[in-house]
Amino acid sequence: MMTPEVFLLCVFAALLELDTTYAFQLTFSRGIIAAPLMSLVTGDVMAGIQIGVFTELIFADTNPLGGILPPSAVICSALSLALHALGIELYFAFFFGVAGAILFSFTEKFMRKNRFKWLIFCEQKITKKPAEINRTIVLALGSSFLMNFVFIFVLAWLCGKLMLWLLPYIPARAHFACKFAYMAVPWIGLATLVPAFRLKAR
Fold it and tell me: 12: part of which helix (H) or strand (E)?
């Protein structure tokens, strides 16, 4: 069921997720940039642009500053596009993407807490051997990349299996309701931004 395109999408998304806080920080992890880039892998650029705009609007007022771990725009975009590439309608896929992004923020928080002891060990090791710093950085980035990939791939596989099994049983009214909710997403996103712009303007 998992096509080579979806596998490559998961790899690319895991790399882009590092841009959020761990490396680069060139804003490639923003939904408006990440989704169109990832859609080049699946071949549906219009879906990527749409998901990118919707993701950007719905997560626009959250930023990974300090100890805040907002839902990941990359995870949302990647899961949405992966499910769409597997034959799931975009208006279903997007809501799985949002749920996956929220779940990832909790997973990331848990991983960071458990990584603390390892970081103390690495700090002591680097203090004794400063040359170990490059190896430690590569290892840290590699483990984060692997965690991101496993999370995206497993979630895309599970959600894809679930939706393909459920699709024949979903009534037309549910399709209409999800489609309506999906089209309302940009308006909800804009509604959250208006108060923020008013506060900045004062």
Answer: helix 4-21
Alpha-carbon span 162 to 33, nearest angstrom? 29
Contact criterion met (CB below 8 Å) for 76 and 59: yes
Q: Which helix (H) or strand (E) holds 35?
A: helix 31-42
| CA proximity to 116, closest of 67, 64, 65, 62 | 67
pLDDT tens per residue across span 133-158: 667 677 777 778 888 899 999 999 99
DSSP 8-state assignment for residue 72: P
Segment 186-190 shows an average pLDDT of 68
Q: Where are the domains of the chain?
A: 4-201
In angstroms, the CA 143 to CA 9 distance is 18
**d(Cα 42, Cα 93) in Å, to the nearest integer?**
14
Query: Which token pair is 95?
Result: 């809501």
Query: In which residue are the tokens 């900045």 written?
Result: 200
Which residue in 114, 136, 112, 141 sits closest to 124, CA to CA?
Answer: 136
Phi, psi of 105 (to 5 degrees): -65, -35
Give dist(CA 189, CA 4) in Å, integer.
Answer: 33
Question: In whole angstroms, how large is the CA radius of gyration of the chain?
Answer: 19
36, 52 contact by CB (below 8 A): yes
CA dist., res. 198 & res. 192, Å (int): 11
- pTM for the full predicted model: 0.82
